[in-house]
């Protein structure tokens, strides 16, 4: 067999046409560029054998380029989509309001830690006093210094006592009110006043540690700015406006001392068939960015203004907050009060704590109605509107 017959037998022409060569100049190094003689196919058979291979190479190259262009466009499209999603997520994070309950939970956690820390401090102080007392027993021949066994002047406020010493007395006014101010969120949760949408008034007796406690919870809405409602309430609670009672119970409200523009010390007396019910109240206003708070806390003893003999002494605290209702835009007022029967400055045999408890149940509702109506009247005066008629509140 000669050489031509051998080539035909192997199908060499078919083998060549099945191979793809990428002979682009970019894939050939400059070091291999040497002058070569270009041979042009002369016969029709040679042209037919070369052209199919060239067309396949071009088709392959074009397909590769199309795929590359498609992938590049997809990368660009997905990158732009990712950037849009990231931008939307940032906007949502910036615009999403912080949950009110989350804030309340954080505040409660912080206050719990503070209370636990204070309890540990008091426990350590008691243990130290016990050790000191045991030490005194071993040295009976020495006279004990009783001053070490009782709180100093600066700590009397913790027992709701106002001393005569000016510096300690001035600090006590703020310390007593500030301690209750830290509890605002807690008591509003306890009074079920956080998510209220409709006006309500409730007066609920509870037995706490064997002692009756009457809890008052009030939620009201007014079509005014909340700062105006807070100002009217502050003028009434500080004793600047005479109370307009809605019932037959007689009450007196007197300003004893103005500590500063937002803190006052007042005296009140409520008279009933069994006698009188007196209170010495520290009233302080807290002005926040989007809210106002008014705290009223009674004290048990005052060295400068002794309490009236023969009258029951109030043990009460109230929390009043004002802000804007986000749903309606109205001024929103939330009020929570604790009131307990306490003690008399001297024992009177014909007066019992039972009658006092009965009076407190009535007093909580009547005093709440009296203050609410007086505040509303003063608010209407500030707005130059006619005084609203008296009406009983809605109970829940």
UniProtKB/TrEMBL annotation:
Region (Disordered): 35-63
Protein name: M96 mating-specific protein family
Upper lineage: Eukaryota, Sar, Stramenopiles, Oomycota, Saprolegniomycetes
